[in-house]
Structures are given as structure tokens and as C-alpha cells.
Give the backbone structure.
Amino acid sequence: MRPFQSGAYVAIFLTVLTVAEYIFAVNLDNAHLRFAGLTVAALAKAAFIAYYFMHIDRIWKPEAH
Amino acid sequence: MALATAVSGHAGGHAAHDRAKMLRVGLWLFFFSESILFGLLLSARFYLEGISREHVDQFLGFIITVILLLSSMTAYTAETAIEHDRRTLANWGLFLTILLGVIFAGGVAVEWSTAEFSRHQSFGTVFFTMTGVHASHVLSGILMLVLALSQSMRGRYTGKSHWPLSAIVMYWHFVDLVWVFFYPALYLVS
């Protein structure tokens, strides 16, 4: 069951990051700091999706079957 | 004879691996070309409006973003389930992904119908173009997921042979990945 659990954990992490991103953006007054924070959050989320959901590492690893 | 069969089997295995690798690299090249399109739209948004924007429904944007993230989880579940030959779970995963995708598309439609800006304004131009191009990818993803579900229900995919389903699921994750950048650019920066 581990593969299913890791997908759920990644989804929970991404959702938490999205909630944090929303709260951060709605409550912060400094536009430039907000932009920088949102950029970092988006890059982190993209990296997680590409690695855990899209299996980007399989491009350079041998195929499983 | 046995040696010849073994050698030919080994070569066949290599050919299958090479083909699988080629398909995977080809799909990523497609994602790369799509990234250029979406990247240009994103840069146009900041070129025209800087880090300012018109009023949008931030809460609606947040809700549809969470829905799209959840759809990525159900799509991942479908792919993992078929890898483990759990077809019923895979079918449910695909069905839920389609459902969440339709809800997301509905949310975008609501945003379009309630937008307080016009397409003639620069922000309106980038907003409708970015969400429109993305929504067209969502709709094509839903269409492909429906095809994958119908094939899966007929038992066409197994733990050892499921590349079409994996490719469609990866496309769906790519659509989600694009939204990860579009959502803050359209709804949160200001």
C-alpha cells in the first residue's frame, strides 16, 4: 500500500502549501515580498508534482517493464 | 535452438525497453513544447500588467485550485492501482478525476461569467487567454480520461501494459502543474 500512501501524503502537502500560499497572499501588504513568496511556493509545488506524480526521474532511469 | 530463443527473447526485451523509453522521452518533449506556450502567456501577463491585477474572486480561485490538486491525487491513485492490477480502484480513480476536472472547468466558467473586467482591458486579455487556453487543455484531458476509463472498464490495461493510461495521467498532472503557476499569477499577486 506504500505507493498509494505516498500519493496521499504529497497531495496533502500540496494542499497545505496552497492554503498557506492563499493566507500569505491575502494578508501580506508588501507586493514584492508577496510575489517572491508566491514564486518560491509555486516552484516547490511544481517540483513535487514533476517528481512524485509525473515521475520525471524515470526519464534517466531504466524502464520497470 | 534454446540459445537462439533466449538471445531473441533478450533482444525483444531490450526493444520493448527502448520503445518504452522513447515513448516517455517523446511525451516529455511534448510537455516541453507546451511549457513554451504557457511560459509565453505567463510572461505576457507580467509584461502587460506588472504585478498588479484587476479584482478577481480569490476564494473561488483557491477552491478550484484545491479541486485540481485533489484530481491529481485521484489520477495518481488510478495509475498506481493499474500498476498493481487493481482495476476497480483504477476505474474509480479515473472516474473521480473526471468528476473533479468537470467541477474545475465549471468553476472557470463561473469566473468568466462573473468577471468584473472586460476582455478589451489588458488584464482581461491575459486573464481570458490564460484561463481559456488552460481550460481547453483541461477539457481535452477530460476527454482523454473518459477514453482511458472506457478502455480500462473493458480490461485493456494490466499491471505490465498500461502506457496509454500512464501517459494520459501524466498529461493531467502537467495541466495541474501549469495551474500551479497560473493561479498565483492571476489570483494572488497584486
